[in-house]
Amino acid sequence: MVYGPSMLPTLNLTGDVLLVEHLSPLLDKLGPGDVILVRSPENPRKTVTKRIIGMEGDTVTFLADPSRSDRYISLKVPKGHVWIQGDNIFASKDSRQLGPIPCGLILGKVLYRVWPPEGFGSL
């Protein structure tokens, strides 16, 4: 299944069951476009699902405020970090607010949405 940024929202806020593998973060097998589970930098008890936009060394350009399309910011992702964003930029707390995320907070890579089945729900 291919997920694209034009598919908003990719995942439902509640009720999705995801198949996640935990080896990719350990083997450095993640890249831009991958959907990952991340321990929240704000609340270590919370897990969030976001998409990798940039890896260490990449320069990312993003809208500082999605409600205004005239203010772009570019920055280089530091070593040992990734840049993550939610697919719904209007309702996502991600690297645009939190900054680059340490790779140590990545818990796994989402392989597949098990439930609801394809063609069912908001996808």
TrEMBL record:
<feature type="active site">
    <location>
        <position position="50"/>
    </location>
</feature>
<dbReference type="GO" id="GO:0006465">
    <property type="term" value="P:signal peptide processing"/>
</dbReference>
<dbReference type="InterPro" id="IPR036286">
    <property type="entry name" value="LexA/Signal_pep-like_sf"/>
</dbReference>
<dbReference type="InterPro" id="IPR000223">
    <property type="entry name" value="Pept_S26A_signal_pept_1"/>
</dbReference>
<protein>
    <submittedName>
        <fullName>Signal peptidase I family protein</fullName>
    </submittedName>
</protein>
<keyword id="KW-0472">Membrane</keyword>
<feature type="domain" description="Peptidase S26">
    <location>
        <begin position="3"/>
        <end position="62"/>
    </location>
</feature>
<feature type="active site">
    <location>
        <position position="6"/>
    </location>
</feature>
<dbReference type="GO" id="GO:0006627">
    <property type="term" value="P:protein processing involved in protein targeting to mitochondrion"/>
</dbReference>
<comment type="function">
    <text>Catalyzes the removal of transit peptides required for the targeting of proteins from the mitochondrial matrix, across the inner membrane, into the inter-membrane space.</text>
</comment>
<feature type="domain" description="Peptidase S26">
    <location>
        <begin position="76"/>
        <end position="115"/>
    </location>
</feature>
<keyword id="KW-0496">Mitochondrion</keyword>
<keyword id="KW-0378">Hydrolase</keyword>
<keyword id="KW-0999">Mitochondrion inner membrane</keyword>
<comment type="subunit">
    <text>Heterodimer of 2 subunits, IMP1A/B and IMP12.</text>
</comment>
<comment type="similarity">
    <text>Belongs to the peptidase S26 family. IMP1 subfamily.</text>
</comment>
<dbReference type="Pfam" id="PF10502">
    <property type="entry name" value="Peptidase_S26"/>
</dbReference>
<dbReference type="InterPro" id="IPR052064">
    <property type="entry name" value="Mito_IMP1_subunit"/>
</dbReference>
<dbReference type="GO" id="GO:0004252">
    <property type="term" value="F:serine-type endopeptidase activity"/>
</dbReference>
<dbReference type="InterPro" id="IPR019533">
    <property type="entry name" value="Peptidase_S26"/>
</dbReference>
<dbReference type="GO" id="GO:0042720">
    <property type="term" value="C:mitochondrial inner membrane peptidase complex"/>
</dbReference>
